[in-house]
Specification:
The complex is a heterodimer of chains A (about 220) and B (about 400). Chain A has about 220 residues and is mainly α. Helix content of chain A is about 60%, strand content about 0%. Chain A is built from nine helices and no strands. In chain A, helix 1 runs parallel beside helix 8 (about 130-160) and helix 8 (about 130-160) crosses helix 9. Chain B is an all-alpha fold and about 400 residues long. The interface of A and B includes residues 184, 187, 189, 195 and 198 of A.
């Protein structure tokens, strides 16, 4: 036995694949659509959610026996809002440009369905360590999809990755642009993020037939 | 042994292998298979999917040939100016030079559209183990007709892949799609590569390549000129005949009208949709004309020239006529109920003109209007059917009470 038991390890690996919060539970779609036009923004958003979910789940789990169940949503909101404000201020202080790109969506982490979902479904009923691991696992699952979507949207939409012009310069016509290639402006619009997520869901379901609901 | 038997033998031989769908499709394309009905009723209508599709392609042929001449003609106009006093049979238009320029530009578009589109259909049919549907035959012909002539072939290929996979195959293939595949392809091109789909450099072949050189030419569509409040040289008859710049096949209102009559006559296209769409467009045009007449808007407004365009001119310019006749009537994506067809068609015409006038970024509203109404068609049908159910229940109650 390592640091984590097999059961605990599953808390991390499950959300990465067959219980992914975005592609299987279809939660947290709003931010996945809004900020994935650039890979950098996707990564920063992922880190922010990782921080908020890990600590949030831990905090809620520690307080789970003293939160009256009638006002638990308010208590959860206070915890997550506090954490989000910390993230927002840190971003504003150290990465101002990025915080402008992410704009309101950092604040909207508060209403990210994945976070409230994990508080409700897991942290309120499990111990602090397992809750913390569960939070990290789900945030990683969220991050994985965000980064895949961000990768394709930035590569095909702007011809760059993390701001580096990997496909050549579109104005000077170097790299692939010399052969008549053009950036796909549709990739930068929100509908294409939805379609990209849809394609990921399609691929995942055709690889694992157990995920297909029978009706 | 004739071709028919040969094809039959090939498709028999490939049965059970991965090639079954591919060769089966080639076989049924040319001949009716030798298969007979195994059980149940033995009466069959001759107007199956294949014949319906052929009946849509047929009226598109004159439009396509006209487009080939028009492509060359527009290039000639851009260089030498618009000839005086054009009539429909003018030699300035119908000459071999124009035709050869157009045919050379258009054939590659058609080939790419068909090869890529049918390729995807065959791949999906093979994976899903069903027969190849004929659905792409019409889409493949429509696609080259609704794009600007200089659309790069690779862009068209990417758009066709997107349109067929995301617009059709993910919903289950021909007959299951929510959106018109040809318009999905055009919408993809429009949003992905806007510089190739709008502006004054894309409607005349070669204009984009010559941009910035001393030989630079340009040709703005009538809608584009109106949106910018500029004058244009074309007479109403030119618009009706189609001697104007625009997407490849959308220009000739005359041939589209004849095509529409053919579709109505063969009962392939719904006259209810066509008529109500025309009425919808006219009503919206009349409203705008009335707004101008009432003096609520003055010449300084950027909407003035489009709003003051005579209401029935809207039917002749842009892709409205083409969209109404060949796109809105797509039986899969349109409303199914008769009452629903009236509502569906009317709103297409109405919204087309609304978008056309009020959104200068989208000079052509008919594409977005049809796609929007495609989405709402099932909802319209639902309420029509529910309304009917309610009415009958009421009647039943009155009877039994």
């Amino acid at each position: 036995m390592g640091l984590l038991s097999k059961k605990d390890l599953k808390l991390i690996t499950d959300p990465l694949a067959d219980n992914n919060p975005i592609t299987i539970q279809v939660l947290g779609i709003c931010s996945a659509l809004a900020i994935t036009a650039e890979l950098k923004a996707s990564i920063v958003m992922s880190v922010a959610v990782l921080f908020v979910m890990g600590l949030g789940n831990l905090t809620i789990s520690l307080m789970r026996n003293i939160i009256p169940s009638k006002i638990r949503i308010i208590a959860q909101l206070i915890v997550v809002a506090t954490l989000v404000i910390i993230v927002d201020l840190v971003l504003k202080a150290f990465a101002y440009e990025l915080s402008k790109t992410l704009s309101v969506f950092v604040g909207l982490i508060i209403t990210n369905c994945i976070i409230m979902g994990r508080f409700e479904a897991f942290a309120l009923a499990n111990g602090p360590l397992r809750s913390f691991i569960d939070g990290i696992g789900n945030a990683l699952g969220y991050a994985l999809i965000l980064i895949i979507v961000g990768f394709f949207r930035e590569l095909l939409g702007s011809g760059s990755l993390l701001g580096f012009k990997v496909l050549g310069d579109s104005i000077e016509k170097t790299g692939v642009y010399a052969y008549g290639y053009e950036n796909n402006g549709f990739m930068l619009l929100a509908p294409m993020a939805l379609i990209t997520v849809g394609i990921i869901i399609w691929v995942q379901r055709s690889r694992n037939e157990a995920l297909i609901e029978d009706n | 042994m004739g071709l028919k038997d040969k094809l039959h033998n090939i498709s028999e031989k490939t049965k059970g292998t991965n090639w079954e769908t591919t060769f089966g499709a080639i076989h049924t394309l040319f001949y009716t298979p030798k298969e007979t009905t195994h059980s149940g009723g033995h009466l069959r209508g001759a107007d199956d999917l294949k014949r319906t599709m052929t009946n849509v392609i047929l009226p598109l042929i004159p439009v396509l040939i006209f487009a080939m001449f028009n492509v060359g003609f527009q290039q000639d106009v851009a260089i030498n100016g618009f000839p005086e006093g054009m009539s429909f049979f003018s030699g300035d238009f119908w000459n071999f030079d124009n035709f050869s320029v157009g045919a050379l530009k258009l054939l590659p578009l058609i080939i790419v559209s068909y090869v890529i589109g049918l390729g995807i259909e065959v791949i999906f049919a093979t994976i899903n183990k069903h027969e190849v549907e004929e659905g792409y035959f019409v889409t493949g012909m429509l696609v080259p007709l609704i794009v600007p002539i200089d659309t790069p072939l690779w862009m068209l290929a990417v758009a066709v892949i997107f349109g067929v996979v995301i617009g059709k195959e993910v919903f289950g293939g021909t007959g299951m799609n929510i959106l018109n595949p040809a318009l999905t392809i055009r919408a993809f091109l429009f949003f992905a590569y806007p510089t190739w789909m709008s502006g004054d450099k894309v409607w005349v072949t070669g204009a984009k390549a010559m941009q910035g050189t001393p030989d630079a030419i340009s040709g703005e569509t009538i809608l584009g000129s109106l949106a910018q409040g500029k004058e244009f040289v074309y007479s109403t008859w030119d618009m009706f005949y189609g001697f104007v710049p625009g997407s490849v096949g959308e220009t000739s209102a005359l041939l589209i009208l004849l095509g529409g009559l053919y579709l109505i006559f063969t009962k392939v296209g719904s006259w209810r949709i066509m008529l109500s769409a025309v009425v919808g467009a006219l009503v919206m045009g009349l409203i705008f004309n009335a707004v101008v007449d009432a003096g609520w808007i003055n010449e300084g407004s950027k909407f003035y020239s489009l709003m003051s365009t005579e209401f029935w001119h809207h039917l002749l310019i842009g892709g409205l006529a083409f969209g109404i006749v060949f796109m809105a009537t797509d039986p899969v994506t349109a409303s199914q109920t008769n009452k629903g067809k009236w509502i569906y068609g009317f709103l297409i015409g109405f919204i087309s003109i609304l978008i056309r006038v009020f959104n200068p970024a989208y000079p052509e509203g008919v594409m977005l209007a049809i796609l929007l109404m495609n989405v709402f068609a099932p909802t319209i049908d639902h309420y029509i059917v529910q309304g009917n159910v309610k009415k009958r229940l009421k009647r039943l109650k009155a009877k039994t009470a």
